[in-house]
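INFO batch 0412 | record 1 of 1 | parsing
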Amino acid sequence: MNRLSLKISAVVLVLVLGGVASQAKEKKTKHKKNQDLSANPLANVASKQPDKELFDKAMIALKKGRFDVARLTLQTMLNTYPDSEYRMRAKLAVGDSWFKEGGTAALTQAEAEYKDFITFFPQAPEAAEAQMKVADIYYQQMEKPDRDYTNAQRAEQEYRNMINSFPDSKL
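INFO prediction complete | emitting tokens
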């Protein structure tokens, strides 16, 4: 009987030590890259506001090339928080997402978003950037010199419009 109790206590000891070891492994947390999203790029103020978090989430998606996720998040932010301090940058970022996506249909959408931005925020410094990107859209779509030159003419017209509308711009 002495041998049997020795074997039982050995098995119990192994089970207890195995359980402690597995709990120690479970307690180790995976270290993810923590991105500090609390810094406000527009006002340099730490913020946990929901509109800021949506804006930051959209900017991360835009950087990763997930344009549809970025647009959906930005539209959610614009619809949910119409008085947000980020609405101007969000409106411009929607156009940027279409612009970066590329393609004829996406560039057409980008042009509409940029012109919409200029309509809503004509005095903002970013309005010159939006006008410049409208011209860049036509510039990107230009054909070879022996082909249709309509896009070249539109690009020139939009660049002139940018110079005339925003003469003090750095662009």
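INFO post-check: Confidence is low (pLDDT under 50) at residues 36-41.
INFO record closed
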